[in-house]
Every structure is written in C-alpha cells, then in structure tokens.
Amino acid sequence: MLNPPEDTVGADAYFADGRRRTPLPVGQLYWPDWDRFEATFRDLFAREYYTNHGPLVQALERALQEALGVRHVVCVNNATIGLIMAAEALGLRGKVIVPAFTFIATPQSLTWAGLEPVFCDVDPVTHQMDPTCVERLMTPEVSAILAVNLWGDCCDISALSAVAERHGRPLFFDSAHAIGCCYEGAPIGRFGSMEVFSFHATKVLSAGEGGCITTNHDMLAARLRNIRSSYGAGPAVPVVKTANGRMSEAHAAIALLNLQDFPRTLNRNHEIFAAYARGLAGIPGISLRQPQRVSVSNHQYIVCGVDAEFGISRDELVEALHNKNIIARRYFYPGAHRSTPYRDDLPQFCDALPVTDRLCTTLVQLPTGALVSDEDVEMICRFIRDAHASIAATA
User: Fold this and answer.
1) What are the tens digits of pLDDT across the range 161-218?
2) How far is 98 from 276, CA to CA, in rounded Å?
C-alpha cells in the first residue's frame, strides 16, 4: 500500500476524544515521490520549454491513448474547458440534456458554450443518468446528450447510446470521476462522440490541475486541437472560435509521474473501499454505495446514503464529522437545477427531479485517497457506528 504522511498515521493522529489532529479531506490527493518530482522538474527547467503543446504534453497524450485504447487524446488545462471545447467541436446549438445530479461545472460548461441545459433525473440505485428520463425529454430543440459517469461508476452506456442513435443526436460524457474504470471490459474513454476527464488534485489521476478529451473521431480531434490553440499540433480545420485550453508542461510532468504509479493508486483505493465496506456493514440507516455498472472501478469517491433509520439527518452527521476534523461533504448539494442561475432561469425543473432532490439531502462523501490511513477508516467507521448507538440509546 502507499504510505500516507506521518502525521496521519498511528495513535498520535488523534486526540484522546477521537478528534483528528489535522483535517482529513475527501479528495484523492495522490502525488509522486519527491525524488522523481525534483528530477523531472529540474529537467523541465533545464529545457526551458514550459507550455504550448510541449514534449511532456505530447508524451502524456500518447501514454493515455495507449492506456485507454483510443485514437485521440487532447490534453487541456481543466475539464470544464474541455467540456466547453467538446460542445464547440460538436457544433451544438439549442438545448442539451444533462443530469442535475452533478458538479455545477457540467451544466455551466453548456451555458458558457451558449447552450441551454435540459435537466434530467437519475436512477435511484446507481445515481447515474436515467435513460428513460432522457427519452421523455427528447424534443427537436435538443441537439445532444451530455451524460455524467459518477463516483468511479458509469451510466448505462448501451441504453443511452441507443437513445442517442434513435434520435440522431450525439452523446458525449463528463467522465471526470472515471479514469481507470471499465465498462463491459473496455476502458471508459472509448464511448460516445467524446469523453472529458479531470486531472485535478482531487481526482484519482492527478496533474494538480488539468484534464483531457478522448475521441475516436479524427475530425472531432482536429477541431479540438484547433479550438485549444496549440499551434502546430495538427492540421488546420475551420472552427467557430478558439480558446487557451493548453496544458502546461509542469502539469503534464505530474500526470506522467502519477500515471506510472496508477496501478498502485487503484489498488490502494480498492483497499480503502473494502475497509469502509467492512467497517460500515450493519450500521442501521447507512448504505455504502457500491459500483453497479463498471467491470473495473477506480473507487474515486466513498459515498454513503443516510436515511431516517440512522437517527439523525445527513447534515447533522456531516456536522458531527467536521467536529472530529473529518471533512465529509454533502455531495452534490444542492442539485444543479436548484443552483444559481438555473433555479431562476429554468424554474420548470425545480420540482421535476424527485430522485435528484432526495439524493442531494441524503448522501455523504467520506474521506479516501492518499491521506487516508487504515486507522482513519477504522476511526471514521467507529465514530459513525458509535453515533448511531448513542442516538438509539437515548431514543
């Protein structure tokens, strides 16, 4: 296993009252070891090539193409820019169907691209986009479907692809949570017209900041590279607009180092997930969300449902965990349909998504990733179990 920092390990990590000495966040936060990091950055500075589709970005794109089995990988400075670029490369107009149960940047990318989100509900078990809801929302004004692969799991890609094909609309994916996952044995990254990944520090493959777009379509890749404005990165093709979406050499260097460690990272995430599954088993009102559709999960996030049987609300549990320096999150809260500006601009969706509304009030995200030790998982599970027992005893 990967060793967390010394201040997170052993009895000294916690005060006698069970409060953690330092805050424990939810993000992945995996980072290469110092010696390799230093050597790579010394080489980067010696070459004095820092941006504009440099050799490290090109190496990262080739490595990801091979790992994902996809024809084209276009690295970008972050996933939000990648989603905007994807919409532009597809030439979308009008409306795009998108789940409201997602990070707010997903629908905001559509707004930045001059499009109108059409919010759909999600499956109550998988939390992924509901294909039957997508079917009902299809109108002539809808130009595409933007699906989201959440939690280290994925949508019902076959069903969504069938809906898209039946209506002659492109399907593309926000796969920010899904690098390293597989669907029916094939790596996520090969599906739809395009997929967009995040390499933010909170994601399982980190560049500190950054992302990429994957596609098997040559013309879409050419448009993406021209929209990104990487001079000399490919043939010139007509695009409506360009943007500075370039990834720096520094971020590519970190991603390449973390890609070398990726098998160990996935294994550690699997260990943490298994430890939570053991520790939370049998606690009334707590349900650990298990991956449903992927054949391989990266276990990007640890997500639990908190229902009435637990004895207190999700928000009360989050507050109690924060008091222990365990920085659990309400994820996602609120739903995008109830967030600015959509709650005012698109009020028709505010009371139309019951599953999303329920999930937004009952799900909690627990810490995982590089900073989480085995003892941390044990302490968090014990605290949640003791909290329920204490509530039950006073009921």
Assistant:
1) 999 999 999 999 999 999 999 999 999 999 999 999 999 999 999 999 999 999 999 9
2) 31
How much is the pTM?
A: 0.95
The pLDDT score that the predictor gives to residue 10 is: 55
Confidence at 2, pLDDT banded by 50, 70, 90: very low
Are the C-beta atoms of residues 288 and 277 closer than 8 Å to each other?
yes
Its sign, for the CA torsion 20, 28, 131, 101, is: positive
Contact call for residues 31 and 383 (beta carbons, < 8 A): no
How big is the chain by its Cα radius of gyration, in Å? Answer: 21
Please tell me the distance from the alpha carbon of residue 83 to that of residue 78, in angstroms, as a whole number: 9
Cβ(237)–Cβ(219) under 8 Å?
yes
Cα–Cα dist 173/212, whole Å: 12
Judge whether 103 and 200 are in contact, CB under 8 Å.
no
Q: How far apart are the first and last CA of the chain?
A: 41
* Long-range contacts, 193-198 (Cβ 8 Å, 24+): 193/86, 193/90, 193/217, 193/220, 194/86, 194/89, 194/90, 194/220, 194/224, 196/79, 196/82, 196/83, 196/86, 196/172, 197/79, 197/82, 198/78, 198/79
Question: Residue 152: which region, alpha, beta or left (left: phi > 0; alpha: psi -120 to 50)?
Answer: left
Distance CA 141, CA 155 (A): 24
Q: Return the H-helix or E-strand segment holding 95.
A: strand 95-99
